[in-house]
User: What shape does this take?
Amino acid sequence: MDSLKVALIQAELRWQDGQANRDHLNDLMDAGPEADLFVLPETFSTGFLGDVGQTPEAMDGATVDWMREQAAGRSAAVAGSLALVDGGERFNRFLFVTRDGVQAWYDKRHLFSFGGEDQRYRAGSSRTVLNWQGWRIDLQICYDLRFPVWCRNSSDQAFDLQIFVANWPTPRVEAWRSLLKARAIENQSYVIGVNRTGSDGNKVSYPGRSSAWNPMGDCLAELDDREATRLVVLDLEGLGEIRQRLPFLQDADRFTLTP
Assistant: This one.
């Protein structure tokens, strides 16, 4: 699939209300029926840290089942993060689901200690790059965006598309935009960032500003602070041509990450 149609689903999430979020996101997804891939925000069923005091969902719970149903019914992939319990521990887990089921997941590595996220969840220990429809896709969550070494495009974990799902707050919106652009340029990759909008149960405000960037750092699409569904088309052949014409990645430093 040289051409990949991705729907950015920028939503105002319903605080601690999984069913309301699933119903609302279903409506927003209906606005992008041509998409091959739907990208939802971080912790889209509860809001950020919205699982406090809630019965924890698991991999066989209602929201993961809903993602499977959506992917199957739309003949597309659905991606987004959830607060999930697995093996008795909680994770902020980014799921990539197709009509064949859960294809891959990534547990957020960099937990937002400034907001107490590290007290709530267990940090992941490894990156996830999956192969789907000929695309190598790197899954990342919100705060990971600030750590370029973790996000680096390397020979052993090479990717063509890097996706960040987020609950990124309004006061730091310019950092959000600048870092997404930087990740695209330094990794010679398409980068998509899907953020939420509105405010949550902790009175935190979110600016939206979901966007897509090409490997030259050009903005392909950028939303404002309103709810929206935006379709962007990514070109794998064009990406290869840029990397061949400007082979910067071959000069990158080699390194190994330690826990």
